[in-house]
Amino acid sequence: MGRGKIEIKKIENSTQRQVTYSKRRNGIFKKAHELTVLCDAKVSLIMYSSTKKLHEYTSPNTTTKKIIDQYQRTLGVDLWSTHYEKMQENLRRLKEINNKLSREIRQRKGEDLNDLNMEQLCSVQEKMLKSLEEIRERKYHVIKTQTDTYKKKVKNLQERHGNLLFGLAEELKYEDLPYGVVENEGE
User: Fold this and answer.
1) Residue 172 backbone phi and psi in degrees, to 5
2) MADS-box domain location, by residue (predicted)?
3) Which residue has the higher pLDDT, 86 or 178?
């Protein structure tokens, strides 16, 4: 019995898609192994599934790095140095941001102000005033919250005190009476 042709498009059912991926992955690894054995080819195969799992096949006696290095020599490109240059550029940019933020912190502490012109000094002053306003708002919020909590506690204590006084007054009222509770003996 022969296999029927299927339409090549994304499988919508995730379970079927994962089963198909697993079967075809095993098939392509088998083909890579056959190429290695039959043709003495150096093969490196890297696959990522939609579940973010890595699957790799590399010919015996070789590594993926060796194959990538050979690929670079053949094409005359250097992927590692390109990646290194991008990382260096990113590092330079982050250092620049760090220096700028460090300078801003020192200026807010009152240091490094000698090299600033009048416009820059005004900008630092505005930032300081804005920060001061934010600090005051936060401080007032904390004080208000603490005051509200204190008021609730005082009110609760006053209510408890009133209840205790009421209970004590009730007890004293019945203690002064000349009579007490008498049980019915005639029944």
Assistant:
1) -65, -35
2) 1-61
3) 86
Query: What's phi and psi for 55, nearest 5 deg?
Result: -130, 135
Phi/psi at 33 (nearest 5 deg)? -65, -45
Kindly state the tokens that stand for 87. 């990382």
Per-domain residue ranges for the chain?
14-76
Classify burial at 62, counting beta carbons within 10 Å of its beta carbon; exposed 0-12, middle 13-18, buried 19 or more: middle
Section 120-131 average pLDDT: 90
Confidence check: pLDDT of 155 > 90: yes
Residue type, 45: L
User: What is the rounded distance in angstroms from the CA atom of residue 138 to the CA atom of residue 164?
Assistant: 39
| Whether pLDDT at 81 is above 70 | yes
How far apart are the C-alpha atoms of 149 and 79, rounded to whole Å?
A: 63
